[in-house]
Design a protein that fits this description.
It is a single chain. The chain is α/β, with parallel strands linked by helices. The chain has a domain of 189 residues: Alpha/Beta hydrolase fold, catalytic domain (Rossmann fold, 3-Layer(aba) Sandwich). It contains 11 helices and 9 strands. It has a 9-stranded mixed β-sheet, sandwiched between helices. Helix 5 packs across helix 6.
Length: 284
Amino acid sequence: MTAMRAGRGRHVVCILLLSMLAGCGVLIPAPPTAAPTASPLPPRPLPSPTARLLSSDELYRDEPGLVGRTDPQFASLPVDAALPPVPIGPAARQIKVVLDDGAVLLGERFGFGQPRRPGLLLLAQDVSSWTQTAQRLSDEGFIVIALQFHDWLQTRHMETLLFSLMAVDSVNADRLAIIGEAQAADLAYLGCAVNELCDAAALFSPLSRDTLLNMLTRYGDRPLWLAAAQNDEEAFQTASLLSQNAAGAVEFHQSSSGRGAELLHAEPELVDALVSWLVLRLIN
């Protein structure tokens, strides 16, 4: 009886093993992975016996102002600093100023060398009309950056222009003034009003009466120089109201005719008056 039970147990075990084997698939080994092999390297080039290092002047001798040229003055500026006026030709007087939005203003620089001198930012409808006046101001001890005015210029650009003027190596950053004519006179006043960097403004034929009068508080008691012609009703009224309501010292010159730079040509003594006023306010 015991033998029969043992035999049946063995049969059960065999049946179970056969069932398990029938349910299992045949394992197929994965294909072998190809092993990377090293390829021979090309011959290493030998170093040159001598190396000639070229400076920026040697590289760009015939192309002054080329983009990429290394300039020690520009290289020494901090990140995001306003660039000083950049010479654009053989004569250092021809310059361009790059604004923070990439726009470019062309103009001229008057005055070079040390010691540091007060800086004047001149916004002109036509820079060539101001050449003699700018040169006279330079002879009297100022650094003048005269730039071509454009209608797209905005008040926010004035801070960049002032910083660019300050970046000129021979400018005394503590003594800055802005000069403008007609629409450029409006921008000069607005730019000076919102920037404490500006110490004074000289306006030839300012036009935007209400806008400028609204900025009197921001301009404060900083000195103001004005010139307008009696036959230019818009400019004369604006200049008159500014002179009557300004909080600081005001000098107002009334001419018979002309607008902007035309006033200088009609009455050359205005140049003497402007020079004397600027010397008093920024040098003495």
